[in-house]
Amino acid sequence: MICGRSVFLAGLIDPMDIQVETAPRAAKQAQTRRPPTRQHARSLASAALDVAAEGVIVCDDALRVWLCNAAAFRFLGLEEPLQLRARPALSQVLAASPCLDETGRRTVLAHCAEAVANGDRAGGEIELPADSRAGTGLALRLRRVAPRRWALMFSAARATAASDPLAHDPLTGLANQRRFEAALTDRLAMAGPGGQQDWPGLLLIDVEGHGSLTEASGRAAGDALLRLVGQRLRAALRESDLPARLDDGIFAALVPAAAGVETLARRLVERLARPYVVQGQVAHVQASVGLAVAPRDGHEAGQLLHSADLARRQAKAEGAGIYRSFNVLMREQAEARRSLEADLRKALVLGQFELFYQPQFNVATRRVLACEALLRWRHPIRGLVAPGDFISVTEEIGLINAIGEWVLRTACQEAMDWPGSIGVAVNVSPLQLADPDRLLRAVAGALAASGLRPERLEIEITESALFGQEAATLDCLRTLQARGVQISLDDFGTGYSSLSRLRSFRFDRIKIDRSFVKDITEDAHARGLVRAIAALGTGLALATVAEGVETDEQARQVEYEGCTDLQGYLISRPLPASEVRAVLLRLNERALLAGAAD
Amino acid sequence: MLTSLHRIIYVSRSLLRGDEDQVAVELRRILAVSRRNNASEGVTGALLLGQGSFAQVLEGPMVAVERAFERIQDDPRHADLVVVEVGAVDARAFPDWSMAFAGAAAASAAPRVRAVLDQVGTAPRATAAESVLGLLDALIRRETEWAMAR
Ligand SMILES: Cc1cc2nc3c(=O)[nH]c(=O)nc-3n(C[C@H](O)[C@H](O)[C@H](O)COP(=O)(O)O)c2cc1C
Questions:
Q1: Closest by alpha carbon to A371, among A404, A429, A431, A417?
Q2: In order of start, what are the domains of chain B with their CATH numbers?
Q3: What is the pLDDT of residues B50-95, one digit of tens each?
Q4: Are A271 and B74 within 8 A, CB to CB?
Q5: Which of the residues A74, A121, A506, B105 has an alpha carbon 20 to 30 A from that of A8?
Q6: What is the per-residue pLDDT across A386-428, written as a single tens digit (0 to 9) for each?
Q7: Do B87 and A89 make contact, defined as CB atoms within 8 angstroms?
Q8: Are residues A133 and A198 both part of a single domain?
Q9: Do A458 and A485 contact (CB within 8 A), yes or no?
Q10: What is the CA radius of gyration of chain A?
Q11: Of chain A residues 234-253, which have a CB less than 8 A from chain B?
Q12: What is the pTM of this model?
């Protein structure tokens, strides 16, 4: 700023010497050539110009810029001197402004050129609406201040309806949420029953990607990118459409007649995805567009916006860079999801969770040595719900830790009723592992409250739980193991199985995913994999549990390949807590008898 | 920063259709508009049409170059635009041209044009940028010599 100011005020002293790159020299020459008194008057004038609130640019008839005060720099968003040759063209100064868009710039130039050509003494006023200038609107006046010299003066536009700062997004100059919703409401009212107008359509445009530019290059770059997105949006629309920015990366467009909105959505997705160049670097964004049309998807502004928003989420969920039209199914799904969340929040308090237990048969001893605890949700209307239908939701709404703690407490408690020293395996969510202190407290609490020996408790984690905060996770597992708790790796072979995982932590067991067991009798490949995993277990001295064993043939095969334990319907289905004790007694008695018969 | 010298190099797929004359007419339109706009904003550069693709160099004050790019990317006469290079440069490669054009020279150097375009997809950015720039430079030079000889 300082630099830019001195450069251009040097022009006031002696315009013949404006040499942007050599400003200090120009100033010095001026000093030596002028009598001190005149110079004093001039520097006073410079100082006064620089504190003026109005922006002033002085040009000649050829629209070359002779001087430019600090406020003018501010209005144009210029921070540094122009590295152009002496007396830059007004068009170049305006072109360097990041605040003026194409239309704004051309309007100003055309206005000046016309006034100069007509030789008007008072060149008149124009107003640039906020739309053609990022930020608020701009009022411009042109006056002839000397023969063939013109002063172009800038000030902020008076707030008119079109440039009401409360109605505009200051970053992009587009309508803001308030104005957009008001326009939508008006439009719907005009189209309503007996209305004169067509029903409108609505697009919500979710822009992703500016965040990473902001992270890499700063706020200004991210903002500049959003400004370009706003410009492309406006360029892709018709004059009668209303573009808006509602929130950070959420843009919208109100289209007065819904016909053709799909074509528009497709065009927007394509246009917004083209490369951007921002502050000297390439950037990309993806736009997911949700589309709703009245009256089909809503008669009223709030409802229509909600429909478009559901469509936007759907587009985003399906992989960004696409558009989706609203359909009723989306509302039903959203409603279903909302009620599922509401029910889940109450489930714990209402005691609707239950644990079922599935026995694991040990090949060497021919007995059941442990059971896996399986969570069920018994809802009065939904019936018995399997974890696959609700666990991910509990994770998303932050209920998983509380539910996980309940599972640990209950499993330890119920295992105390079982005969002998049969163990209980409890599944732990990656999200629980992400908070190791809480998990350690929960395990210690469950063991203490029930009196279960730690050796009888087994914690099952999935491979994905080991991603992320690896060090803290591994520490937590080691602590548990040091206390005597067994740790097993669930669904082995389905995730990002990596042998280095088996090296970084000494699991007590690995559980071979049921998909391998299912095909073992027909598929030599599956058999080979089971054999390899079992061999891995033998080599590392850890147990290997085959899951999903349903037939005698499968049992024979997995035993033959070397698995140490079997779990599945062939041994037993998952049992309600009340039946476990009896079934365990029966199974182990039979095993004893069979063993005696050998 | 806002006004320091920047360069953008891109390639795109031409959507100009029709026979040679129709294409030439459309090209002349593009060039006339380019020269008018670029000259008023301190932008210089070069454009090539060959093998169904455009390759263009734009250089000038950062904001002006980025604004020109923003106009161009939206033009329906081409598609699939890929930015090969963007960034600050010390000097202009085409200081004397508000938009130089390589047409006949590009046609006569088809294999080289093809090879450079292929490179854009495969070679590292810097290498690709250098060869596009080298290609344009050579072809513009040749085009100018022909023009002078005539
Ligand atoms: C391959 C190609 C290159 C272009 N190069 C330029 C250019 O260098 N400068 C320019 O202003 N317009 C260029 N244009 C034209 C712009 O896309 C756009 O039509 C023009 O800037 C609009 O200017 P107007 O609003 O003054 O008519 C190019 C178009 C194409 C297809």
A1: A417
A2: 5-149 (3.30.70.100)
A3: 999 999 999 999 989 999 999 999 999 999 999 999 999 999 999 9
A4: yes
A5: A121
A6: 999 999 999 999 999 999 999 999 999 999 999 989 999 999 9
A7: no
A8: no
A9: yes
A10: 37
A11: 235
A12: 0.66
